[in-house]
Design goal:
397 residues
């Protein structure tokens, strides 16, 4: 586990690791810099957008300039490096140093008993055939649904096609492999707005704002636990929903809570012609070396060593013990788990929150609207200006 990894690092390198958990690391780092302090050598920032702000405010080191930071090593995620760097400068990244990029990766939980009872297509067969698509998922959900707008969420005589949340709209969009931003010459550019991205976004949003078969977690008010997420999750756990989009943190909970047989699938494809499956991680955390510490190269060396140790100890333990042994219930889910983690997508538009463009999806679902064109038009200029601001800020360093 993480403690064993820390102990080995301390023993091998004859150092003392002082780990401080801070609720708001961005504020702590800013305040320390303002008084000229050197309280922290490095930070793993759990709100990656905050790492982007610290980078723009010249408080983080460019990792590419630190010879002791081997950004090409297998314990750092090359896809994250590519998404997070701007103008050949990388101020934060992720990889095996944290399991949170995996914990916050989405999958689709499905009720295996319901698949059999309703004589539905086996999801694993669909996956292998490359026909696990958004349309197919919706078709299957409709077949089991008995809910209607007038039905109470906790009516235990009702079966829902899916238990979901407003934020899942962006996850379904990410399953297409499309992003709101891409990179050209290592500079971010808006990639949303193409015919393909608009068409698929409209399809997702229309389904999520008009479908009777979707139960939103926010409707689970007044439930027995007083927690809408737990109470809505129990709709799936108790066999009253076919699907539930879930981060792997929820998969772990389902293993101990669920009264059903369940399996996992990746986010569905946009269409059958799409090559491969993709999953956008919703929160990857970012490791950084702080500019006001006194020995950047030493900090870089130790962070690299820690990430290497985590790859050997922490990541395997999380995947093999927490997920495969304790959470997943069949061999197919295990192989699909590995494929999901191999196809994680990092979207620079979400990380840098350019003009709030990545929040369009959840906002529209909350409003019951599928008008992505008007929403995009309303934030396009703001997003373009934000991109220019970040590029300019990075250029100053």
């Amino acid at each position: 586990d993480i403690n064993a990894c820390n102990d080995k690092i301390e023993e091998d390198y004859q150092i003392e690791l002082i780990v401080e958990k801070i609720e708001n690391p961005r504020v702590a780092i800013e305040e320390d810099a303002q008084v000229g302090g050197m309280l922290y050598d490095a930070a793993v920032i759990h709100v990656v957008e905050d790492a982007a702000v610290l980078a723009q405010n010249d408080l983080l080191c460019n990792l590419y300039t630190l010879k002791n930071f081997d950004y090409q090593a297998p314990w750092w995620d090359a896809s994250a490096n590519e998404a997070y760097s701007i103008g050949e400068k990388l101020y934060f990244t992720t990889g095996d140093i944290t399991i949170m990029n995996k914990v916050n990766t989405w999958s689709i939980l499905f009720n295996k008993e319901m698949i059999r009872d309703y004589n539905l297509d086996n999801p694993y067969d669909l996956y292998d055939a490359g026909t696990w698509t958004f349309d197919k998922m919706c078709e299957m959900a409709k077949k089991v649904n008995t809910a209607s707008p007038s039905v109470a969420w906790d009516d235990d005589t009702v079966v829902w096609g899916m238990v979901t949340a407003t934020g899942d709209a962006y996850q379904f969009f990410g399953g297409s492999g499309l992003t709101v931003c891409e990179k050209e010459n290592d500079l971010p550019v808006l990639s949303f707005g193409t015919e393909a991205s608009i068409t698929f976004a409209e399809k997702v949003l229309t389904a999520m704002t008009t479908s009777e078969w979707m139960l939103y977690a926010t409707k689970a008010t007044g439930g027995p636990t007083g927690n809408v997420w737990t109470d809505s999750f129990n709709v799936f756990n108790n066999g009253r929903a076919l699907f539930r989009p879930s981060g792997f943190s929820a998969v772990t909970k389902a293993s101990s809570w669920a009264n059903i047989e369940f399996g996992i699938m990746p986010m569905p494809k946009m269409n059958e012609s799409q090559e491969g499956y993709y999953t956008v991680t919703s929160g990857s955390w970012g490791v950084s070396i702080l500019k006001n510490n006194c020995d950047h190269q030493f900090a870089a060396y130790m962070i690299d060593a820690f990430a290497a140790g985590a790859k050997n100890y922490v990541t395997p333990a999380y995947i093999e013990v927490n997920l495969k042994r304790k959470s997943l219930r069949d061999d197919d889910s295990e192989r699909i788990l590995e494929d999901i983690f191999e196809s994680i997508v990092y979207d620079a538009g979400a990380v840098y929150a350019f003009g709030g463009i990545s929040t369009m999806f959840a906002n529209l679902v909350s409003q019951g609207s599928a008008d992505i064109v008007s929403s995009f038009d309303s934030v396009r200029d703001q997003a373009l200006n934000a991109i220019e601001d970040v590029i300019d800020a990075y250029a100053q360093d």
